[in-house]
C-alpha cells in the first residue's frame, strides 16, 4: 500500500511535465554493460532498458512512450541533452560538482558500487600517480580527478586500451566500475593484472538538464518505488 500510494501521488511539477510530454527519450552510453549498450540488432540493452520500463510501469504512467538513443561518447550524450535531443541521460556520475558544472542534475543513485583499481605487479603509493583513462567515459575521469587530483592522466579510446596500457607499462593503473570489473577481467589476456577495491563508492544515476524539476522528481520517485538493490539485481 505505501509503495502504491507513493507511485500515484504525483507532485504539481511531475504532473506539469507529464501534461506536456507523451514520450520520454533516454540517451544512454554504449559499450558500458551491464548499465547500457546497443545489441547486435541495434537496440538498447542493459540496466537502462529494464529499469526504465519497470519504473514507468510501477508509477502507473504506461501511456508514456519510452525511446532510447545510444552515444559512444559521454560528452556527446550530455551535449545532446542540452540541445533537447534527449530528455534524460544514463548513466551519469562523477559527483555533483562535475555534473552541475555540465548543466545537469543527478537523480538519486540507481547503483552505488565500488571502484576497482587495476594495476600490474606489486601495489605501492606510486601506483596511483599515473592513470590510463577512457576518453569516451568522462565518469572515469571525474572519479580519478576527484580522488587523485595530482595524478597524471593519459587518455585512450577504449577501456580495453587502458588495460593494455597498464599491461605494457605505459600507465601504472586504471579503474573499472565494480559491476563491470569481473566480466572484463575474465579475458585471459588480463590474467597478470591485479585489482584492489577502492574505499570510495561511485554512484551511477540518471541525469536531467538543470531546471527540469518535473522529470527529475519522476525519475527519483521511480527509483524510490523500486527500492535499493533493484539495479544490482537485474545487472547480474
Characteristics:
single chain, about 240 residues, alpha/beta, six-stranded mixed beta sheet, three-stranded antiparallel beta sheet, 10 helices, 13 strands, elongated
In short:
By secondary structure, the protein is of the alpha/beta class. The chain has ten helices and 13 strands.
Structural commentary:
By secondary structure, the chain is an alpha/beta fold. It is built from ten helices and 13 strands. The protein has helices at 2-8, 12-19, 47-58, 74-82, 96-101, 138-147, 159-167, 181-185, 213-226, 230-235, and strands at 23-29, 37-38, 44-45, 65-71, 88-92, 104-106, 111-113, 115-120, 130-134, 152-156, 173-177, 193-197, 202-209. The strands form four sheets. Strands 1, 4, 5, 6, 7 and 13 form a six-stranded mixed β-sheet that branches. Helix 2 packs across helix 9 (213-226) and helix 3 (47-58) crosses helix 9.
Strand content: 25-35%
Helix content: 25-40%
Radius of gyration: 19 Å
Span between N and C termini?
29 Å
The general outline is elongated
Identify low-pLDDT runs.
none
Mean pLDDT: 93
Would you list the SSEs in sequence order as H and E?
A: HHEEEHEHEHEEEEHEHEHEEHH
Main pleated-sheet profile: 6 strands, mixed
Number of helices: 10
* Number of extended strands: 13
Q: Quickly give the structural class.
A: alpha/beta
Strand-helix topology:
Blueprint lengths: L1 H7 L3 H8 L3 E7 L7 E2 L5 E2 L1 H12 L6 E7 L2 H9 L5 E5 L3 H6 L2 E3 L4 E3 L1 E6 L9 E5 L3 H10 L4 E5 L2 H9 L5 E5 L3 H5 L7 E5 L4 E8 L3 H14 L3 H6 L1
Parallel strand pairs: 1-4, 1-5, 9-10
Antiparallel strand pairs: 2-3, 5-13, 6-13, 7-13, 8-11, 8-12
